[in-house]
Design brief:
The protein is α+β, with helices and mostly antiparallel strands. It has 14 helices and 26 strands. Helix 4 packs across helix 6, helix 7 packs parallel to helix 10 and helix 8 runs antiparallel to helix 9.
Length: 541
């Protein structure tokens, strides 16, 4: 009897020891109808076997994939799982020397290209606080794919200042991403695709970025004077970030890793075109010029400055033009919405008003520069893409974007294309839409639904500032329903986009009220200036 007990205890000790081999992952990505990529990290170089089966008891349709983690890759490895069947749920476990790790997961392969059905995607960005309830809600939905739009644990400030100049810091940043407890649990059964943004790469532009927008009070005139300082960094930090993504994220093949992370894939009747709006971007601060006479900054977009390279622009056009998918999703870290140009103008007009935002006190000009890093700050690139879509009558194009720390929807009337902006997965607050609506109204401008996000969102006509994520329901070739969902599972805003064969459109003409609004934004809010300044200073002091 004693010998049996000892044998059992010995077996349990072996099982427990092996259960601790996996330190990070598994993370599933790059799904197709017949393959997937599987990231795994251990506490040291370890040989392992991934076992797949179509039943949870692992008694039928067994597939095995052998590999070993690498010391040169931070004790991790990405394994290709191939020869899979489409639209099939596979259960998986990992064995070390014949003994299975304690946890098991599952994933579902993509349907065949072109196959129509009901598909569910979740999306979001900006993940910095300890509140991870959004991942609990997403896990309950069990989406076909989670689309992460960047600012993934904010290594830019949550790690050492030398990130990402040292490649060891890049490695650490991926360990930090994959050890988020609630997200880690979700990723055992939900595949992911991801593109970085400024706070999980090197910054907002390729080699030069705005370091700070500061202000001072002129001693003689008592007026506010704004200034911009810049930070330069070598290409090596960009290459480190791209290399880290390739080595530690199980993503799809990139088009050109010398330029960035842009890529595409097809899931059923949906094509996702992931754009990299950081790797080749010019500096948004260079879109402003200082007028020495008025002592004011002006927004003067330079047609020679670009958000994406000519090569990526051409690739994007070709993907859109040649796509046979019912639905074409442009996915990028930055919001596309054309209406954000109004907020840039508003920030320029408020450049002598001291406000606070993003945890930093500054003037309206600081906000204008921040908004200028978006597509609206590079209107020539934006218009070039819109003109191409319109001239070629490319239909059923939608945008999914992040970065802003708030969450909202527009059917394309203001944005230029139907857009879901989702950027509050785990942040201190999602108040931006609420305060922008308040300030614009105080300045005598229209409600934010009139010129920016016409289907609302968090903080727009409500005070729901909880963490939120986006949910996309694709209903065959009939419609796509996009919704903003809070951390408790409550829908905040929703919009349905009909397919062009059902009367839907992504091609809009300017409405009369928009023309009136453009004129209104072009005027100085002189009658409100003192009142706005006093109210803004009391709100944001």
């Amino acid at each position: 009897m004693t010998r049996k007990i000892l044998c059992v205890l010995f077996s349990l000790s072996l099982w427990t020891a092996n259960a601790q081999f996996i330190t990070h992952g598994p993370v599933l990505g790059a799904l197709t109808p017949s393959s997937a990529r599987f990231y795994l990290r251990c506490n040291s170089p370890k040989a392992f076997t991934i076992i797949l089966s179509t039943d949870s008891l692992f008694q039928s349709n067994i597939l095995k994939f052998n590999n070993a983690t690498s010391a040169q890759l931070d004790h991790s490895i990405i394994t290709l799982l191939n020869n899979l069947n489409p639209s099939t749920r596979y259960f998986y476990k990992v064995e070390f020397e014949g003994i299975a790790d304690e946890r098991k997961g599952s994933f579902k392969t993509f349907p065949n290209v072109g196959e129509r059905g009901h598909y569910v995607f979740t999306s979001g960005s900006c993940q910095e606080s300890k509140n991870m309830k959004t991942f609990d809600r997403m896990s309950e939905i069990n989406p076909d794919l989670f689309i992460h739009l960047g600012d993934f644990t904010y290594p830019s400030y949550q790690m050492n200042d030398d990130y990402p100049s040292k490649y060891t810091a890049i490695q650490e940043s991926y360990r930090r991403r994959y050890e988020e407890i609630r997200m880690k649990d979700m990723l055992w059964h939900v595949p992911i695709d991801y593109v970085y943004d400024d706070d999980d790469c090197w910054g907002s532009a390729r080699t030069k970025a705005v370091n700070r927008c500061s202000y001072a009070i002129d001693s003689s005139t008592k007026k506010v004077i704004n200034a911009i300082s810049f930070e330069n960094y070598p290409d090596s930090v960009r290459y480190n970030c791209i290399r880290g993504y390739v080595e530690y994220f199980p993503g799809y093949n990139m088009v050109d890793t010398s330029e960035g992370l842009y890529h595409s894939f097809v899931m059923g009747n949906c094509e996702f075109i992931f754009m990299d709006t950081r790797s080749t971007a010019d500096c948004e601060g260079d879109q402003f010029t200082f007028d020495s006479i008025s002592k004011k900054w002006l927004f003067t977009p330079n047609p020679n400055l670009h958000l994406i390279s000519a090569k990526q622009m051409q690739w994007t056009k070709e993907r859109l033009l040649n796509s046979k998918a019912d639905w074409k999703f442009l996915v990028c870290g930055l919001p596309f919405n054309k209406g954000l140009k109004h907020l840039i103008d508003l920030g320029v007009k408020m450049q002598d008003i001291i406000v606070a935002g993003g945890g930093e006190k500054g003037t309206g000009f600081r906000l204008a520069v921040s908004w200028a890093s978006y597509w609206a700050g590079f209107p020539n690139d934006q218009q070039e893409l819109l003109d191409f879509i319109h001239q070629n009558q490319i239909k059923d194009v939608l945008v999914v974007s992040g970065d802003t720390h708030h969450n909202e929807l527009d059917n394309g009337q203001n944005a230029g294309l139907p857009e879901m902006n989702v950027s509050g997965l785990a942040v201190a607050g999602t108040h931006l839409g609420y305060y922008m609506n308040l300030i614009s109204k105080l300045c005598g401008y229209p409600d934010i639904k009139k010129y920016l996000w016409n289907h609302g969102g968090g903080g727009i006509h409500n005070k729901n500032f909880k963490n939120q994520f986006g949910k996309i329901d694709v209903n065959g070739s009939d419609n796509v329903c996009m919704s903003i969902v809070d951390e408790d599972g409550k829908p905040i805003a929703k919009m349905k986009i009909l397919h062009s064969t059902k009367g839907g459109t992504n091609i809009f003409k300017e409405k009369p009220y928009q023309k009136r609004m453009n004129k209104r934004f072009g005027k100085k809010p002189t009658g409100w200036q003192r009142f706005v300044k006093s109210v803004a200073n009391s709100i944001f002091k």
